[in-house]
Amino acid sequence: MRNLRNIRYNAWNTSTSFHGSDITSTCWDPAKDEILCTLGPDAIDGRIRLLRILEHVRASSVDIECQEVASWDAPSPNPDLAVDRVVSLHHFADSLTTCLVLEGGDIVVVVESEGQSSSDGVYIEIKGSIDEGITAASWSPDEELLAITTKANTVVFMSRTFDGITDATMTAEDLKASKHVSVGWGKKETQFQGRGAKALKDPTIPEKVDQGVISPADDGKTSVSWRGDGAYVAISAIEGGIRRVIRVYSRDGVLDSASEPVDYMDSALSWRPAGNLMASIQRLEDRVDVIFFERNGLRHGQFSLRPAEGRALTEDKIQLSWNSDSTVLAVTLNDRIQLWTMGNYHWYLKQEIYTEGQPTEIVWHPEKPLRFGASIAGKLIQAEYIFEVTHGSLAPPYDYGAVAVIDGQTLKATPFRTANVPPPMAMFELSISSSVVDVAFSPANTFMAILHQTGVDLYEWRTREGRSLCPRLIGTTKFAQEHPAEPLLPLQISVTETFYVHCLCSGAEGPLIFSQGFDRSSGEFLSASSMYAGSIFGFSRLTQAISEDVVAQDLLGRLHNVASQVDELYSTRHNSQLPWNELIDLAGNVISIGLSRNGHLYANTRLLLKNCTSFLVTPAHLIVTTTNHLLKFIHLTDVELLDVPPDDPETDERCRSIERGAKLVTAMPTNMSLVFQMPRGNLETIFPRAMVVAGIRKLIEALDYERAFAFCRTQRVDMNILYDHKPAQFLKNIGLFLEQVRDPANIDLFLSSLRDEDVTQVMYRDTKPFGDQNPADEEVQQNIIEGSSKVNTICDAVLSHLQAQNTRDHGTLQNIISANICKSPPAFEDGLQVVATLMKEDDQLAETAVEHICFLADVNTLYDEALELASTTRATDEVRHRRPPEQI
Question: Which residues form the ELP1 N-terminal second beta-propeller domain (predicted)?
Fold first, then answer.
C-alpha cells in the first residue's frame, strides 16, 4: 500500500565547467554523503578526471559544487583498445581512497588528503595491471575482496591490498556444475487436470526446453554482482559464443553453480542483497521480462516490463540495480529510470524518471536505501525517495479510509470503510495517460489530484448513503514546457478544498511550485502561477478537514505556507529535515509531527520516541508503531504535555502488541478501526481498545446512544460506561436512550449488566492529561457514594419512564420486570405485583411475564416472595406449578 514519494532531486551538468564531457562512472562516499564521478577518457581527451560533487543546503537554495580531486593521463596500454574505459569506481571512506579499475588492465588508487584543500597531497598510484585486459570488476560489500573478470575468460580474486588470492578459468565444463531438476512449483503442469492422459505427463519436463540462445540485442558484456553478505559472487558472461550463463563462485573462488539455459537472456545482472534472488533480463519477441534465478541456477519467477505506448523495448540498453535493503529494483531504459517494488507477489511500477537520454549507470547509496545517483552522458542527477502511504483525511466524518496505490499508469484506490480489498486488487482502478508520480487527497476527501508525467488530473470522489462511488474525472491540465531541452520533472502535489492544485517540479531554473485553480462551473483549469521553491522538498499533510493552508517543509526543517504563492514562514519548525511530516491545529496551537529516517519521532522540536516505524494523526490521537512491535496511542494536547505510554500492553489500554513488522496504513475513527500492512503485503484490520473507548465516549457526549450501545456489544466493552461516562446526562436523557436502543432484549441486556462499580475509574480510566468533569456528574457520583445505589438509580429512572408511557405491550412489560429484578437487592415484590396486575387484565401477557420473571430469578425465591403477597393468590399458584429452573 506504500508509494515512493520524492523528497530530494537535483541535477549537475558537466557543461558548466567541463565542456559537456561525459560522466563515465560514479560511486558514493557514504561518510561525507557525496558522490564521486569520473570524466573521460575519450577520443579527444585521454585524461581521467576524478570529481567530487558536493551539495550545500542553504535557507533559500540548494547549491551544487564540483571539486576536482585529481586528474591524470590514461593512455590505453593495449594496442587493440583505442581508448581506455573505467570499468569500476569504488571509494573507501575509512582511508579516503578511491579505486579505479580500467578496461586496459590497470588498477589505479587515488588517496586524498585530510586537509581543507582537495588538491593537497593527492596521491595517485597504479597498484597492478592485468595484461589480458579487464571486462568487469566489482568490490565485495565488506570491501575486502575485488572480483575481476578478464578478456582471457578468467576470474581473479584480489584482497584489499591487491594481493592475488585465487583465480579460475571459465570453461564449458562449468555448465555441468549444476544438475537442474525443476519440480514445477506453481506451474500449470503441476496442477490437477483431471483423469486424462494429460495429467499423466511428467510435470518436471516442460513443453519447451530452452537451449540458451543468445539474444540478437545482446551487447556481449560481462557483469559481476555480489550477494549482500559477500559470501558469493555471480558472473554473467557468454560461453563459447553460443550461450549466456550465470556462474556463481564462493568467496574462495570455488565454482558453486551455473544457471540453467535461458533463451535470449541479456547481460544485465543484479543480486538482491537479501540473497534469495538474482535478477536478469530476457528479451522475447513480444515483450521484455525481468527474470529471477536462485543461487543454484534455477529460474524463480519473472515479471514483464511495461513500455510506453507506441514504443518497444527490444533495442533498449537495460541495466538492473537493487537498492541496499532489497526493497526497490531500478531498471534503466534508453530514456528513463523505472523503480519497481514487490508486495503480495505483485510487482508495482512505483516511479518513472524521464532522463531525456541513456542512463549510463545508477548507483544506490549504501546507507540510505532510497537515495541514488544516476549519470546520463554529461549530467548527474541525485534523487531520494521515501515509502509513504497516500491516504485521505482521518478526521470524522470524512474518514472513509481512502488509500491510493500507484502502479505505473494505473492508480488503485480503495475506501476501506466501504470495502477491505486486499492488494494487489483494489475497489477502483483508474487509467492515467502517463505514469503516475504522486497523489493527493483534498482535506475533506472530496477531490483527488493525480500528478503524472505530463500534467495533472483532478477526480471527484463522491459518496452515496455512506458508500463510495467510483472517482470521476472532472478536469485535466498539461504542463507548459518553456524549455524543451530541460523539461519539467514533476515531483509532488497538494490540493485544497477550494479547488487549488499545487505542484512541486524541478526545471531548468531549479525547483518551482506551480499553483493552478480549477473552475468547477466551466470544468477548466485557470492560468498557472509559479514561485521559486528554494530548499523546499515536499508538502506536509494536514489533519484538519477545513484547512485551506498548503504547508511545505524545507531541508532545514522549516515549515512554509505557500497557499497564496507567498512564502509565509511558520513559527513551528523542526531542527532538521523530517521526511514524514503532518500538522495538526489544536485550537490555534499548531503541532508538527515528524519522523526521521532512523525512527526518531518529533513533535515540533521535542523528541517523543526513538524507535518509531510508522505513525498516523487523528483529531484525538497520535498513533504510532514501534520496533518493539507495539501499537501506541498518544493523546493530542500541548507539546510539553504529550504523554508517551510505556511498553506495557497488559495494563495500559494505550499500548497493544501487534504482529512483527506491521505498519499503519490508515485509521477510521468513525469505525474505531485501524488498517495495518504486514511485511509480506497482506492487510489486517483491528479495533484497538483505546480507539474504541474514545469513540464510545464521543458518541455518548453526542447523545448517540444507539451507536454507542452497538459498539459496546460488538467490541465487548462493559455497558456500564454508557452511564458512568456522563451520569447526569444519561439520567436526563433516559427516554432518548430507551428510544434509540428500542429492542427490549437489548434494554434487558443493558439492565442485567449493571453493577455499582464505576468503570470509568477502574476498567476504562480516561488517560487524557485533563479530564475535566461536569459538576452535575460530580453531584450524581457524590449521591451514589453517600448511599444511593447506582444500579437502583438507573433502574428507577427506567421504570419511571416506562410506567409513564402507560403501554402494555410485551416489550415494555418485559423491561419493567427486568428493571425491578435487576435492582440491588432485587425488588421481587414489585415484579410480582406487575405479574398480579396482568393476571387481572390479560392472561396471555401474564403467562409471558411469569416465564420472563422465572428466567431472571430463582423459582424458589420467587415462590417465597409470592407467599408473602396476600393479593397474589393466583400468582402464587402459577409460581407453584412452575417447573424447576433447569427445565424451564
Answer: 405-665
Strands 580-586 vs 541-542: parallel, antiparallel or unpaired: parallel
Whole-model pTM? 0.90
Residues 245 and 212 in one domain: yes
798 exposure class (CB count in 10 Å sphere: 0-12, 13-18, 19+) = buried
Amino acid at 15: S
In the predicted structure, residue 199 carries a pLDDT above the cut 70? no
From CA 295, how far away is CA 580, in angstroms rounded? 37
Nearest-angstrom CA–CA distance, 660 and 541: 27
Q: Give the residue from 535, 568, 576 showing the smallest Cα distance to 550.
A: 568
Q: Please, are residues 25 and 74 in contact by the beta-carbon 8 Å criterion?
A: no
> Both 737 and 882 in a single domain?
yes
495: closest CA among 536, 461, 535, 453? 461
Rounded average pLDDT over 650-657: 89
Q: How confident is the model at residue 747 (pLDDT cuts 50, 70, 90)?
A: very high
572 inside domain = no
Tell me the pLDDT tens digit for each residue of 482-507: 766 678 899 999 999 888 999 999 98
| Concatenated DSSP letters of 724-763 | HSSHHHHHHTHHHHHHHH--HHHHHHHHHT--SS-TTTTT
Residue 749 has pLDDT above 60, yes or no: yes
* Residue that wins the pLDDT comparison between 701 and 809: 701
**Cell numbers found for residue 387:** 515509502
Is the per-residue pLDDT at 262 higher than 60?
yes
Residues 366-380, mean pLDDT to the nearest whole number: 94
DSSP three-state, residue 324: coil
What value does the mean pLDDT of the chain take? Answer: 88
Same domain, 255 and 336: yes
CA distance 467 to 689: 26
CB neighbour list of residue 777: distance below 8 Å, 6 or more residues apart: 726, 727, 728, 729
361 and 409 within one domain: no
Kindly state whether residues 320 and 262 are assigned to the same domain. yes
Largest CA distance in the chain: 127
Q: Is residue 651, in this structure, part of any structural domain at all?
A: no
148 with 101: CB under 8 angstroms? yes
CA distance 564 to 548: 10
Specify which residues 270 forms β-bridges with: 279
pLDDT single digits (tens) 564-582: 777 788 888 899 999 999 9
Count of structural domains, the chain: 3
Q: Is 636:591 a contact under the CB 8 Å cutoff?
A: yes
What confidence score (pLDDT) does residue 859 get? 78
Q: How far apart are CA 847 and CA 267, in angstroms?
A: 89
pLDDT of residue 571: 84
Q: 358 and 302 share a domain?
A: yes
Same domain, 289 and 414: no
For residue 344, the 8-state DSSP code is: T
CA R_g for the chain: 36
Last residue within a domain, chosen from 334, 352, 385:
385
Q: Summarize pLDDT for 169-198 with one digit per residue, the tens.
A: 999 888 887 766 665 655 666 666 665 555
783 in the same domain as 740: yes
Residue 886's pLDDT is: 39
CB 642 within 8 Å of CB 606: yes
| Residue 111: inside a domain | yes
Question: What 3 state SS string does 250-310 have?
Answer: ECCCCEEEECCCCCCEEEEEEECCCCCCEEEEEECCCCEEEEEECCCCCEEEEEECCCCCC
**pLDDT one-digit tens code per residue, 334-356:** 999 999 999 999 999 999 999 88
Q: How many CB atoms lie within 10 A of CB 217?
A: 16
Domain enclosing residue 92, as ranges:
7-178+207-385
C-alpha–C-alpha distance, residues 262 and 276, integer Å: 19
Total residues belonging to the chain: 888
DSSP 688-701: -HHHHHHHHHHHHH
